[in-house]
Each structure stands twice: as C-alpha cells, then as structure tokens.
Amino acid sequence: MQIGIVGAGAMGSGIAQVAAQNGHRVVIVDNHRAALEKSKAGHQKILARLVEKGRLAEGEDHKIASRISYDSSLTELEGCGLVIEAIIEKLDIKQALFKHLEEVCGADAILASNTSSLSIASIAAACEKPERVLGIHFFNPAPLMPLVEIIPAITSDEAVVNKAKSLIDDWGKVTVLAKDTPGFIVNRVARPFYGEAVRIYEEGVADIATIDWALSSLGGFRMGPFTLMDFIGHDVNYAVTESVFTAFFYDPRYKPNFSQKRLVEAGLLGRKTGRGFYDYRDGAVQPEPNKNEELGQSIVNRVLAMLINEASDALHLGIASAKDIDLAMTKGVNYPKGLLAWADEIGLDTVLATLDGLYDEYREDRYRASVLLRRKVAKGEQFF
C-alpha cells in the first residue's frame, strides 16, 4: 500500500519515515517547497545517523529514502491507500483539504487526520463518504514515540477503523482506541499535569523549580511540568489547553491560566525562543528548588489526584478502556505508571480524600471528584 502524507512539518515527516521504514512507498505533499526540501534533508540526515548508530544496515538508509517522494500537488496522492493529514490545527482548513482529498483519492482510500484535539466528526462532515474518515494521532517525534491513538468518528465504518488499526499495529506501534471527544485520551487526561502545577505556582505554594523537582524526583515523571511546557512550546501547549477548555463548554477543570497566556503573548515560547518559564540564554542562572520532602510530596499528591480523577472520568464516560487509558499515558507521555493502576496502588479512598479536601477548601467545580471514583470507594472496588 502506498501512503500519502499531507504536511511536511515535523509530524508529517516523522510519520512518513515510520511508513517508509516499514516498506511502504510514501508521498509527502506540502504547498511550501521549502518545507519539502527541509523534510527531505531531515530524512537523509536522520536515516544516515541511524546507520552510524548501527540501528540500520549499511545502505538501508538510501533504500528507505528512495521510497519517499516529495511533491506540492495533491493529485500525486491518487494511488494512495491511506492518506494522513498533518497540517495546521484549524478546522476550516482541514475540512477544505479533506473535501479536496476525496476528489483526488480512490474510492477505497482511507482518509485520516493526525489532529490532537479537533473533532473527527467535524472533519469527516466535509466528505461525501465520511465513513472512510478517522483520526490516527501520532505523538512527536513519531519515529520514537510508540503510542498512536485511533479515533473513529460516529460516522466511521468499523471495517475502515479495523483496517487502519491493523496497519499501524503492523508498523510496531502501540495503538489505543479513543472516543471522538476533545483531547481524545492523552491530551484530555494530561491537562491537570500542567494546569494544577501552574495553579500551585500562581498561589505561591512553591516556585517552578520546586514543583518540577517534586514531580520528577518524588513523583517519578520524566520531566517536571514547567520544563515540559518549555520543551513542547507554550504556543502549542497553551493552544491545546484553550481548545480543550472551549470544546468542553468551558468546564473549569480545563481552564487555561494567565501565566502561560502572558508567555505566549510576549513570545516567550520556551526552549525554541530561549525563554519560557525558565531562561535558556547563555549565562542565565537557573533557580534552585526547595527540596523539602513534605512540601514536595504534598505537590505530588495534589497533582496526581487530579490526574487520576481525570483518568477515572474518562473511563466513566467511555472515552477508552481502563487498559487503553493506562497504556496511553505510559506510552504517549512516558508517565511512570498507568494512572488507574497507580490509583489502585495508592488506595482509591486516599485519592478521593485528597480531592474532597481540595473541594472543601476551594469550593470550585475544578476539584469535583469523578462519580466513578466515588462509587468504587463506596463499593470497596478497584480499577483493575
């Protein structure tokens, strides 16, 4: 099967590399010639490096690179069995593209969006045959991150979904099925990791270095939330938060924060601009954390309770199975443990007590406990 990729940015190029390394001929289409040239040069450099590291056999890089072609015309996608869109996160632009793709591609071609938070149903609505449209959400960088969320729209044909999932499984990826709701699994469940950490900072409970130290050293997360937001880029991370908040009809659990909004407005986007929550410029002095373990553990307990609550609600609302929720968080964002299994380990009554304590103190709907969590505690049950 020939694979088509629309969008030659980091994500599109990464997906193309994965497909080509799995033996497919790949066509990357982008209307910016410079983006195509950058993608091609990037592939050659990355594949050559894999040969140097012994991860590819000598000459294999050239074979893989030869399977990828680069073009500015969508008509080149005509013979593709699967086309994955990886362009700007603007619904109207995606809808126009999918309408065009349907005119160009064969009747049996599967059309997929790599969107991280937009409605698949809305994208599919632009097509005459919405049943062949679904979400296939890779994580960046696509060649390295194992997780792929498979998101059927309410109009997606089950056979199409199964075929797409089977193909991505064959590429060696870990696939999870997610309901077509804002943020799917990962970008929904992970919101408190950022939002609650910023709330703790804004309240003056602890500074950013202390919060990052607590969640990485005591909590076991690979990166603290402020380091991670700086790494992702505040333009990207804040846009997802704002999108999820709006899409959930302004549910206070997903409310954006002014600290990150001001960084975006000032153009302080994190590592890529040299400044974000931290200063990455030459000679900058980094803040030292307060390594008080009692303070640190209270931070971990608060953020973790909010994450578990979100995972519990996702399960309660049928967003995904318990297994897939935990798999998504460990394989998609490298959490040290699946959140639902972690809750079982801590004790659901302990998690509920933390949430109820926060709600009693703040009286904000942000801290309402998931009804599923409350029911399980009442029945003495666990998630697994």
From TrEMBL:
Domain 3-hydroxyacyl-CoA dehydrogenase NAD binding residues, every copy: 2-181
Protein name according to UniProt: 3-hydroxybutyryl-CoA dehydrogenase
Record domain 3-hydroxyacyl-CoA dehydrogenase C-terminal: where: 183-280, 299-381
Gene Ontology molecular-function annotations: 3-hydroxybutyryl-CoA dehydrogenase activity; NAD+ binding
Domain of life: Bacteria
Species for this entry: Croceimicrobium hydrocarbonivorans
Cited Gene3D superfamilies: 1.10.1040.50, NAD(P)-binding Rossmann-like Domain
InterPro entries: 3-OHacyl-CoA_DH_CS (IPR006180), 3-OHacyl-CoA_DH_NAD-bd (IPR006176), 3HC_DH_C (IPR006108), 6-PGluconate_DH-like_C_sf (IPR008927), NAD(P)-bd_dom_sf (IPR036291)
Keyword annotations from UniProtKB, A to Z: Oxidoreductase
Cross-referenced SUPFAM superfamilies: 6-phosphogluconate dehydrogenase C-terminal domain-like, NAD(P)-binding Rossmann-fold domains
One GO term of the biological process aspect: fatty acid beta-oxidation
